[in-house]
Fold this sequence. Notes:
Elements lengths: L5 E6 L10 H14 L4 E6 L19 H10 L2 E9 L2 E2 L1 H10 L19 E8 L4 H14 L9 E5 L16 H23 L9
Helix pairs in contact: 1-5
Amino acid sequence: MTDALTALVLVGTLRPTPSESSSELLGRQVLGDLRSHGVEGSVVRLVDHDIKPGVEVDMGDGDAWPALRRQLLAADILVLATPIWMGQLSSVSKRALERLDAELSETDEATGLPPTYGKVAVAAVVGNEDGAHSVSADVFQALNDVGFTIPAGGVTYWVGRAMEGVDYKDLDETPEAVASTTATLAANAVHVARFLKSSPYPPKESS
């Protein structure tokens, strides 16, 4: 096996620990499938941390983002697990994406590339109505803009029937379609992450 890979799961639930979370459950299932490919990782609930609004690396006293950023930049694979609220990804998930905008200014002197280049990103989305495709599109556009690579089949999701109140965490078992999609996501993410680790993106061409 080539160099070991690591992953970070950022969970965008609005419920602080120790409340149960469907988003965290699906995020941990993604991490479980990544571990089957030799990837180790950790899970962070964004709502448990005081992430200041803004688009800078550090927004000053009390900002929890710099510590989370260090974890993110140390990982090869980012998993953003978010619920759907009001047809959109959660507000704390959006805040994390906004803070990543700062990476565009943190370019490496030798390559001219942001530190997020060469990293893989995938999404895990849960909700009680349709919207998973729209949410994943927003997530992927933002993450790709700052340098993350999205593998084929880079999202796994579950959405319940409209006008009903069943949560993913309350299901008796994981639907086969979700389990299969999650397994494919993990395999593809690891494949791309290993490739990028052994063959990084070329330096930015100077104009």
